[in-house]
Amino acid sequence: MEKEKVIDLGERIPRLKQELRRKSNYRLVFYIFFFFFVMIAVLYFQIAFGNISKIEVEGNKYVTKEEVIQLSGLKNETSYWKISEEAVEAEIKKHGEIQSAKVTKKFPNNIYIKVEEYGTVGYLMKGSSYHPVLENGKVLDVSIEGEFPVQAPLLYDFREKEEALEGETQNPGLQFEELQELAAEMAILPESIRKSISEIYYTPKEKDALSITLFMSEGFEVHVTINDFANKMLLYPAIAEDKKHLKGIINLEKGAYYAPYETAE
C-alpha cells in the first residue's frame, strides 16, 4: 500500500503569505494608479473647461443680447462649475421688459439663456413717434420706424407719469397712469378681439376718468371704460356680426347698446 502524500504546513503557510502579499501589492498599485488618473482628469477638465467659452441668448426682441449677458453677470472668466442657474435667472428677470428667463449649462462649458419678453399690446404715439407698450404697462423708450414688428393697436392721448413699476430696478422706462391698467386688460383679452382694434384714444369724462374710445378694423366705434375692459369687450364680436351691414357706435360703458352713425350724429 502506497504511503499517503504528507503536506508540510510549515512550508505551505509562508508560500501562501507571499502570494497574498503579492496580490495586495498589485491591488495597491492599481488604486494608486487609478487615483492619479482621476486627479489628472479632474485637473485637465478644470484647466481646459473650467471657464465659460460661449454664451448663447435666444428669445430677445427689444432687449439686446449684450444687455441680457450683462444682467446675467456672466463673463468668459466665470467658472462654469460654480454657476447657479437659478441665481442667474433671478438677475436677468430684474429687467423690466423680461417676463421669464431660463439658463441651461451645455457641457463642456457653454451657457444657453432663453428669455421671454412681455408681449406688445400696443404702440403709443408720443411726440412724433410710436413706442411699444408691453403687457406690464411699460412704454419702451424706443421709437418704431417703418413696419410694426407685432400687430397691435395704436394708442393716443395717454398721460405720462414719472414713476417706475413696483420692484423694478433695471431700465424703468416711461410709465403712464391709465395705460398700465389698460395694458393689463389687453393682456387677457382674446387675441381675435385684440387684433380687431385699430386705434385706442384716451377720452376721459368728468364722471369717468377711465373712459376710452376704440376704432375697430370692422368699421365700428366702441365706447368703453378701462375698468373691466377685457370682460366688456367679449360682447363686441356678437354685436359686430349682427350689425355688420350698418356701421355705428357700440357703447359698452354701462351695459351694451348700439346706434348707427346717422342716428349718433
Give, in order, the helices and strands. HEHHEEEEEEEHHEEEHHEEH
Mean pLDDT comes to 84
Helical content stands at 25-40%
What overall form do the CA principal axes indicate?
Answer: elongated
Per the CATH scheme, the topology name of the largest domain is Rossmann fold
The top-level CATH class of the largest domain is Alpha Beta
How many helices does DSSP assign? 8
| Count of domain modules | 2
Number of strands: 13
> Span from first to last CA?
139 Å
What Rg do the Cα atoms give?
35 Å
Strand order of the largest sheet: 5-4-6-9-10-11-12-13
Q: Specify the CATH architecture of the largest domain.
A: 3-Layer(aba) Sandwich
Computed structural class: alpha/beta
- Oligomer category: single chain
List low-confidence stretches.
Answer: 163-174
Largest sheet features: 8 strands, mixed
Strand content: 25-35%
Notes on the structure:
It is a single chain. The protein is an alpha/beta fold. It has two domains: 64 residues, Ubiquitin-like (UB roll); 145 residues, Rossmann fold (3-Layer(aba) Sandwich), CATH 3.40.50. Helices cover 33% and strands 25% of the residues. It has eight helices and 13 strands. The strands form three sheets. It has an eight-stranded mixed beta sheet. A three-stranded mixed beta sheet has the order 1-3-2. A hairpin with a 3-residue loop joins strand 2 and strand 3. Helix 2 packs across helix 3. The protein is elongated and about 120 Å long.
